[in-house]
Each structure stands twice: as structure tokens, then as C-alpha cells.
Design brief:
The chain has about 150 residues and is of the alpha+beta class. The protein is built from five helices and six strands. The strands form three sheets. It has a two-stranded antiparallel ribbon with strand order 1-2. Strands 3-4 form a two-stranded parallel sheet. The protein is globular and about 60 Å long.
Length: about 150
């Protein structure tokens, strides 16, 4: 028997997508809790046009439902029913981030070796920027046929 000391390093990709337009904002954070989620929502608020309101569809992770979460004015949190990730439009973006192919990076994350977490974060950040520049792809993956239409589609 051998002694093992598993060590893990994590980071999180917080992505917001407007399904009707494919516009998106991605933020990479090295940890997530209620305080970080509040800062992420504040970044989202700054990304929106002045006076624009938005709904954010979330699961019920502890940092999403905490009474201590500071939700900026104009942002409304809408919670999915338990065990229903298929209703979350952004869930269909994750394969594009991790298994997608980038013209500059090849396979983004899957089947690649990274020397450290910082290198992996840089590659994922570049992929998120690629996707932000390709709203049609994001729209195809997030605009479900049942999604409520509120704007004219171009």
C-alpha cells in the first residue's frame, strides 16, 4: 500500500449568455462562495447597458441561495427546479469550452496537458473570448425553442 496525498486546484467559469443574441460575458474565478458570487453579479451589472434589467437562471448552489448574497438592482435571480440542468441554457456552452476546438488552440482543454492551473486558466479564458466573438454559435446552443422571446431576433 502506498501513501497518497491528492491535491486539487480549482477554478470556476461563470458565464452569462443572452440566448436571443448570443452575447456573453465570462468570468474566471479561482474559488466560489457567496461573496465571490456577489462580485460576479456586480460585474454582470457593469456589463449590462445602463438601466437594463436581466434575469439570471441558476441552480440552487449554496452561494446562489444564501441570504447573504448581495444581488445588484436590476438583476433578478430565477432558480431552476432541482435536478434539471437541461433547462439551464448555459449548460450547453460547457462542451464548447472544454471539448471545443479553437482555430488557435486546437482542442481547448480535453486531452491536453497543462503545467499548472494558471496555464489552463489562460487557455480557457482565450476560449471564452473566442466564444464571445462568435455569438451565432452561442445563440445556436442556448436559444431553446421554448425560450420566451422578448426582443426581435435579427
Amino acid at each position: 500500500m502506498a501513501a497518497v496525498h491528492p491535491r486539487y486546484e480549482w477554478f470556476y467559469v461563470c458565464t452569462f449568455v443572452e440566448p436571443e443574441t448570443g452575447e456573453s460575458l465570462s468570468l474566471l474565478v479561482d474559488g466560489i462562495d457567496t461573496e465571490v458570487m456577489g462580485r460576479v453579479l456586480q460585474e454582470l451589472k457593469g456589463w449590462l447597458s445602463e438601466g437594463e434589467e436581466t434575469w439570471v437562471v441558476l441552480d440552487r448552489a449554496g452561494w446562489h441561495v444564501s441570504q447573504r448574497l448581495k444581488v445588484p438592482e436590476g438583476i433578478r435571480l430565477v432558480f431552476l427546479p432541482p435536478y434539471s440542468p437541461e433547462l439551464q441554457p448555459v449548460e450547453r456552452v460547457w462542451p464548447l469550452v472544454s471539448h471545443g476546438r479553437s482555430p488557435y488552440l486546437g482542442e481547448v482543454v480535453a486531452n491536453r496537458y497543462f503545467h499548472d492551473l494558471g496555464e489552463m486558466m489562460a487557455v480557457v479564458a482565450e476560449r471564452c473570448r473566442d466564444l464571445e466573438g462568435d455569438p451565432k454559435t452561442l445563440q445556436r446552443h442556448t436559444l431553446f425553442h421554448w425560450w420566451p422571446r422578448t426582443k426581435e431576433l435579427a
